[in-house]
Amino acid sequence: MAGKHLQDFRVVSASSSTPTSQSTISIASRFDEKTGERIVLWRHIQQAIKNADHVRNGNTFVVFMTDDNFEESSKMQQDSDRSPTIFTLLGCAYRLIPQRILYHPGVVLDVIVEGQERTVSLSSETLGSPRRRRGGGGRRR
Q1: Residues facing 110 on adjacent strands
Q2: Are the beta carbons of 141 and 123 closer than 8 angstroms?
Q3: Which of 7, 10, 103, 141 could bridge 38 with an S-S bond, Cβ 3.0-4.6 Å?
């Protein structure tokens, strides 16, 4: 998978604060045209690690990305004048949807799980690898 921008994750139990195994899970990052940053979608993390609660870099909580107002709210109302990835919050602040975290190159991030950890069995393909677009030839096997 040379040349890919893979984010490595380690599953850590919330109750013991220790890794549940020595192995890591890699998820392909994506380039976000709106922010100009490489990101990892939260739903991809949740697909790979079913009881994912949050992400940490050591003892630092990795927050979801927001717009320049740095505000979030549980009361979201879609703004039809904006792109589908941005929603109006209480009429003034914006939260990026779908939820995403910044890509941390060369860092293994901890995914904290509540209860018993369950991971998806990954084949040779990495979760979240960008799909080929039609017209680009057949799929490599």
Answers
A1: 10, 56
A2: no
A3: 103
